[in-house]
Amino acid sequence: MSPTQPRNATCPPPISAAASSGDATLAQGPARNSSNARASADAVTRKVSRHLLGFLFLLFVVSFLDRINIGFAGLTMMKDLGLTSTQFGFATTLFYLAYIACGIPSNLALARFGARRWIAFIMIAWGLASTATMFATDARTLYGLRMLVGVTEAGFLPGMLLYLTCWFPPAWRARANALFMIAMPVTAAFGSAVSGFVLRLDGHLGLAGWQWLFLLEGLPAALLGCVAFCYLDDAPAAARWLSPAEKRTLEAELASASATREAHSEQTGLWQQIRSPLVIRFAAAYFCLVNTLAMVAVWAPLIVKSFSAGASNVTIGLIATIPQIATIVAMIVWGRSSDRRQERKWHLIAPMLLAALGCLLCASSGAPLVQLLCVCLASAGSYTAMSIFWTTPDQAFSPAARAVGLAVINAIGNLSSAANPLVVGWLKDMTHSYAAGLGYSAALLVIGTLIVVRLPGGPKSARHDAHDVEAADDADDATRAAA
């Protein structure tokens, strides 16, 4: 291992495809047993899905809830603390600046210490930090507490994206990513309703409604961090719930994909890969996409309130669930479509354009029903695009560079998350409307789509190549296991 390459305890290199199969099997196995091997490999991957995705989904629910609950807290907190929209947006910007600054170090720590220990540690830390936000007394204390949440939560999403590549071969990643990331709209949906009801606790035990919100939605993260320490495994080789034959099958799947990446990236060092034009384009496209994700996550409750004059906070919370339900359906259907067709690029472009259209129409329409439908388009398009996006960047890195590379793309993209609340808050204060902020989001989505169009056809062809290699090696491994 090169001194510049981090030790990867999270996902140790799987056994090579050739070693797991044998030269004789490589020559004869695929032709004789490819269908049985594929069925065996798919069965193992489905078992992994059942064991991991539900739990990872739950972890992401509490993570995303701690990230977006400030949007609902703002319905009453802004008045209690005397905050302007610009100050409120700046608090969210500081969260993302801290999140960006600590993302790469956190992913390196995850690679060194392993997912089980590191994810457990950061969940406990951010759960306590999020809960402590209930003690904010003015803009300055809110700024400091939100930065602390950003520091502690920084490694979760890039770490989980890295972790998924250790368990799911490329042919399954759109579905795996969608089922994991569907936690975002699910959280926004039930979080909208739950947060609306929690705000009704205003005055109980001397606490404001927004204080109850941070208390009741922050502590579960710390508790689940303890559970994660006992439940997660760092890699397939350590999984006691997989049989030896299942481990070999899964490792052969992952080895073939790693071999494909190594063939294209091993000639260059870690930092050369990260500074490559392809990675810069991925990061720029993600920057444009994440802006709309931040817009939907932070400002959606306030946008709904702006065209639902006179509605209670509970009603606003219930209305805000509608776009998230549409998003959940879209992510499941579109992720399956992308995996079934083994196509990524146009499955990414289409939802980005729909999200841009939704933002533009929401900004220009004055009809509440039309605006609600447009928020549905913006939410479904942006979240669906995100789940497809993360199936492609790992193809640009060797396995040794993956931990840093994914964190770099996530960090650069989240610069947009840092800028969005400040820009949209300022535009709202200046224009007394969210139309300008929605137009800003639509413009960035169009720019991001143009960047994706100019990406090479690699995401699609690389997926096909990886899938073909995996099919052959899976057949070899199944034959060996049967023997």
From TrEMBL:
It is found in: Membrane. CDD domains: MFS_ExuT_GudP_like. The chain crosses the membrane at residues 52-76, 88-111, 118-137, 143-166, 178-198, 210-232, 278-302, 314-334, 346-363, 369-391, 403-427, 433-453. Keywords: Membrane, Transmembrane, Transmembrane helix, Transport. It is a multi-pass membrane protein. The keyword Magnesium does not apply. InterPro entries: MFS, MFS_dom, MFS_trans_sf. GO terms for molecular function: transmembrane transporter activity. This is MFS transporter. It comes from Paraburkholderia silviterrae.
